Amino acid sequence: MKKGVLLHSDISAVISRLGHTDQITISDAGLSIPSSTQRIDLALTQGIPDLLHEQIIKRIADLEIQQGNAIARKYVSHSILKAKTEKSKAVIRTGECSPYANILLCSGVTF
């Protein structure tokens, strides 16, 4: 059995293949996902799992302190997000039912 923090095999595989500037999207239950983009569906039922925006924002702030660098955060319109989603390596769909509850993560480098 693989040792590590990330247990979901599809998510682990996508993350292991990300290169500099590649991106993945974590979406609410209603985001339309392009047929050409890999869909990883975590939704069990309405609201499960939720997206936990505040916890994600806090975790990003904690990472900035730990790493000693700034992590860019940018809010974009829904139409821009949908266009960027087409370039995502995968969309991870949650059960979140709040409107426009989506996050696009862009891969960086560790140096």
From TrEMBL:
Give the EC number(s) listed in the UniProt record. Answer: 5.4.99.62
Enzyme class label: isomerase
Report the protein name in the record.
D-ribose pyranase
Tell me the InterPro entries matching this sequence. D-ribose_pyranase, RbsD-like_sf, RbsD_FucU
Q: Does the keyword GTP-binding apply?
A: no
One Pfam match: RbsD_FucU
Instruction: From the UniProt record, list the reaction(s) this protein catalyses.
Output: beta-D-ribopyranose = beta-D-ribofuranose
Query: Which keywords fit this entry according to its UniProt record?
Result: Carbohydrate metabolism, Cytoplasm, Isomerase
